[in-house]
Write a structure and sequence with these properties.
The structure is a single chain. The protein is mostly helical. The chain contains 18 helices and no strands. The protein is globular and about 65 Å long.
Length: 416
């Protein structure tokens, strides 16, 4: 069995990266899926919005998985919950890669796609809260920023894999080949990675904090963690939701970039995907720095750096994109990912400290998944509001959420 804390961090984080690949590749392939699984109309924006609606369903489904698996984690153990998650993701990803398209089975095709996307959402809704809880409870409090930051490094690498696969498809296959068979490759690969995930996690021990907490208090049933959360931690749950909103609006907007940057600034999709790959890889490299900063200066300090950067720098960064060069695109995406890195490095230790051990996984899951369920509709809202014609709409949305998050982080006791 694996007892070394560093190994627990690495293996837990690696599994989270594999799960994130599965979830994100759907968004990156949204344009292709729109063409394959829906009856096409003359309005391209409407066709795109159909797929973003299915994308948003994955986020709507996340609270279901988050709450269900968190109840298992808080009552029966973090490890039991952690080992169960990947089976849903593996099956959903493999089946998406095998689905017949609209041309083959008609209107049943999008129904199957919707069901499998919901299953993906249920699985991923439990993933990150479980990983945060597992890693944090295996780690000393004064090192949680550094250790939990590796989760996001791994998640970033999972996103790198997704954007790299999408880039290679667009680079080496012509559009007809992608539509004919190439689109299946990312999903089949994702299913295999999810299966590998299980074997990665088998050797991880139960967390010491959970074992010690069980000696003092045990939940009577699987509803008990949620009941305790709703009765005694309403304000902290609200704070957690707003803190999560500050990170989620930026992360989900990033998934809108493949279409947004193509339509507004006329960048080629292959350049966008390669630039996103470099940007997310940069995030994986710099977030440990912000994690150590969170341990030294406080988790709230790192979070505030990210929020203030989003408020003051996103507008001029978007203006730079008007130059239309590849270097400008890469600079923008790397700067954007730096903001996300600062936010996430502070966010995770803050969330761990908001809730006691007996309801920690439930508390994190509720805040994380309710918020992402709401924010998952951002690409749809952006498209409907006209962001494919006016880039400032994105700035208005991000700024509004960031102001709320900034107020919330000042109300939370900082952790050093």
């Amino acid at each position: 069995m694996i007892k070394n804390n560093n190994k627990v961090t690495i293996l837990s984080s690696l599994g989270a990266g594999f799960e994130y690949y599965d979830f994100i590749i759907f968004a990156l392939m949204s344009g292709t899926l729109s063409s394959l699984f829906y009856a096409q109309v003359d309005n391209e924006v409407i066709n795109i919005m159909k797929t973003f609606m299915v994308f948003a369903l994955g986020y709507v489904a996340r609270p279901i998985g988050g709450i269900l698996f968190a109840a298992v984690g808080d009552k029966s153990g973090r490890k039991k919950s952690f080992l169960s998650i990947m089976f849903l993701m593996a099956g959903a990803s493999l089946l998406i890669g095998c689905l017949p398209t609209y041309d083959v089975i008609g209107g049943i095709a999008p129904m199957f796609l919707i069901i499998l996307r919901i299953v993906q959402g249920i699985s991923f809704g439990a993933e990150l809260p479980g990983a945060i809880t597992m890693v944090a409870e295996h780690t000393d409090k004064n090192k949680r920023g550094a250790h939990t930051s590796f989760i996001i490094s791994s998640v970033s690498l999972g996103s790198v894999m997704a954007t790299l696969v999408a880039y290679l498809l667009n680079k080496f296959l012509d559009p007809q080949q992608v539509l004919a068979w190439g689109w299946r490759i990312p999903f089949l690969l994702g299913g295999v990675l999810a299966i590998i995930n299980y074997f990665i996690r088998k050797g991880i021990d139960e967390t010491p904090e959970f074992i010690n907490a069980q000696k003092v208090f045990r939940h009577k049933n699987y509803l008990s963690p949620m009941i305790h959360l709703l009765k005694g931690y309403k304000l902290k749950t609200l704070q957690g939701i707003v803190l999560t909103a500050g990170t989620s609006i930026l992360i989900i907007t990033n998934l809108f970039f493949p279409i947004f940057l193509n339509k507004i600034y006329a960048y080629e999709k292959s350049d966008i995907f390669s630039g996103m790959t470099l940007g997310v890889l940069w995030c994986a490299l710099v977030i440990p720095f912000f994690g150590k900063l969170a341990d030294k200066k406080g988790a709230g300090f790192s979070y505030k750096i990210g929020i203030l950067s989003a408020l003051f720098f996103l507008f001029p960064l978007l203006k730079l994109l008007e130059e239309g060069t590849y270097m400008t695109l890469v600079f923008f995406l790397m700067a954007y990912q730096t903001i996300i890195a600062a936010l996430m490095a502070g966010y995770m230790p803050l969330m761990v400290e908001l809730f006691p051990v007996k309801i920690r996984q439930t508390g994190i899951s509720v805040c994380y998944n309710i918020t992402y369920a709401i924010m998952g509709g951002a690409p749809f809202v952006y498209t409907y509001a006209g962001a494919l014609e006016n880039a400032n709409i994105i700035i208005y949305c991000i700024s509004g959420v960031s102001f709320l998050a900034l107020a919330a982080v000042y109300r939370v006791r900082d952790i050093k």
